Amino acid sequence: MVQSLLLLLLLTVSTVPASADEDAFIGVNIGTDLSDMPSPTQVVALLKAQNIRHIRLYDADRAMLLALANTGIRVTVSVPNDELLGIGQSNATAANWVSHNVLAHVPATNITAIAVGSEVLTTVSNAAPILVSAMKFIQSALVASNLDSQIKVSTPHSSSIILDSFPPSQAFFNRTWDPVMVPLLKFLQSTGSYLMLNVYPYYDYMQSNGVIPLDYALFRPLPPNKEAVDANTLLHYTNVFDAIVDAAYFSMSYLNFTNVPVVVTESGWPSKGESSEPGATVDNANTYNSNLIRHVLNNTGTPKHPGIAVSTYIYELYNEDLRPGPVSEKNWGLFDASGMPVYILTLTGSGTVLANDTTNQTYCVARDGADPKMLQAALDWACGPGKVDCSPLLQGKPCYEPDNVIAHSTYAFDAYYHRMAMADGTCNFNGVASITTTDPSHGSCKFPGSDGRNSTFVNGTTLAPSSNSTASSCSSRYYYYGDAFVRSTVIVVLLLNAVFL
């Protein structure tokens, strides 16, 4: 049974790029390197169940395009890299490709874009000289069929073609590719198309050797003093994704193109990795994709172009067990081959993409490696002003063991999270909590939300954990005064502005 889940001062004046779509959208890439690849009808059933209205295919598979007919789903088809040379050298070959892979399916199948190759400049550089020719030949075939206004032509680029990407205002495309990028951008501008860019903060984080904080890669809230600031523009960046997109905008502007929008054709986070890939976890994948979807659908835009849509395709629909490389390469999917979600996205309030938010199956837990003192402070608050019923943590009660601050704060965090109906921002606690789909219940200690049930909480007087607990006693009480908590015994003002919410 398919489960639902709720499942984009160097320039004082710049031309704002037009949105590639009226509103930002979230799409999904569909790879096929699975040992048990679902049938096209099964794939389409999953897409419809999850209300996924935009997809990108890595080819133009006939069976898939037939299954998508009359669904209204907006489809990007692709010219595979191994067909690029032929199409780029022959107008007739390009016209034949369009005839067989596009004309044969429209209008029943809603094809809206053609991706000509994938990361050609960085993966098949021998095809780079004919890339723009291939795009022009494909465009000519669309014009001849009066489909050029309905179907846009572009090509996805790896973000690695951008050099010195931070600060964004100093970023530029690898000059080696100027003979390709200049005519390519002219083509995109003249046809009203967009720059396709693959953006992977996961790789930036992994390759930074600790320079890029995990929170910055995952869209987690940052205090103002932790935000990255572009010294040239004084723009503040709170996440890697926005910084890369703006680096692309600045790179285009240095080539005098200021009105070509960006669409992110791939972005995501792996849910599993090898020991050398500690960032590849279910919680991190859930956090990144949930925050990415909210960020895009809120039409947040970027610091350089606030409010301008950055539509984005998540990589990817399925885990691809046949992909070569490390474990992480096989675990970027939102679903396994059976259509079961790898994790439940936490998307309350972000719209209808990826259907319903099954938040009854999510829990708020203490983050791995969190500072014990911060956990203790958060626990004290949850059991005090947070009005969580912490009586199950009393000695002799079901959730007393294990008697440590991690276990006790996990219970308190989850209790508060469910008491607040799992609303956005209620599982943060100044960065020491995170959402998981793994039920933390153990033995007779049942956590709120376990088995899909929300517990009932008393909003009046609540009990703090036992003072006999050396790790998690609430003997120090906090009283709430506006935006700060004052410790009654030490008279210290904690200037944490909405710290735990």
Q: Would you report the number of β strands?
A: 18
Radius of gyration: 25 Å
Distance between the termini: 35 Å
| Strand coverage percent | 5-15%
Helical segment tally?
A: 13
Give the number of domains.
2
Q: In what order do the strands lie side by side in the largest sheet?
A: 5-4-3-2-1-13-12-9-6
CATH-assigned homologous superfamily of the largest domain: Glycosidases
Protein name: glucan endo-1,3-beta-D-glucosidase
Membrane topology: Lipid-anchor; GPI-anchor
Catalytic activity: Hydrolysis of (1->3)-beta-D-glucosidic linkages in (1->3)-beta-D-glucans
GO molecular function, one term: glucan endo-1,3-beta-D-glucosidase activity
Describe the structure in your own words.
The protein is α/β, with parallel strands linked by helices and 501 residues long. The protein has 13 helices and 18 strands. The chain has a 9-stranded parallel sheet. Strands 16-17-18 form a 3-stranded antiparallel sheet, with no helix packed on it. Helix 11 links the parallel strand 12 (262-267) and strand 13. Helix 4 (91-103) packs across helix 6, helix 6 (131-144) packs parallel to helix 7 (178-191) and helix 12 (372-383) packs across helix 13. It comes from Actinidia chinensis var. chinensis (Chinese soft-hair kiwi). It is found in: Cell membrane. InterPro entries: GH (IPR017853), Glyco_hydro_17 (IPR000490), Glyco_hydro_17_plant (IPR044965), X8 (IPR012946).
